[in-house]
Amino acid sequence: MVQTGTLYFICGKMGAGKSTKSQQLAFDHNAVLLSEDEWLSSLYPDQIASFEDYLTYSAQIKPLVKKHVQNILSVGTNVVMDFPANTQKLRKWFLEIASEVDANHQIIYLNLTNEQCLRQIAQRRNEQPERAAFDTEAVFNHVTKFFEAPVQSEGLTIVEFNGRES
pTM score > 0.85 for this model? Predict the structure, then answer.
């Protein structure tokens, strides 16, 4: 019997460093890295112009991504999902992915302040000018309204970083 892989997923406000942490986790755990940004930009090029567009297209890929990740976990390979786990509803989806194939999971919670995130967003705007339209304080404030920090009562295995050690 093959041991299932472990599913790693990330929670943190916009600009907290989720993609950077995902890359490091994939390296550290010899895991397959799946990036929502890559899937969306490949499947829907130039079609995401608003947060509402993002929500629509993100929801469309979830069934395919779920099955794909479960197949990878089922053969014993670890998976890091660079998809936001920023609400209880989203985290429930990640837990279903793991539990339906009896895989372990770990959520990495990047617990940074708004100020830390905004500093990192400003830096990212300079480094990646193509993201400037979305990497703004206004967008940050809008999406942060929906953010819910993870709690143990959700049945999660939580590893928390506050920004100084991540």
Answer: yes
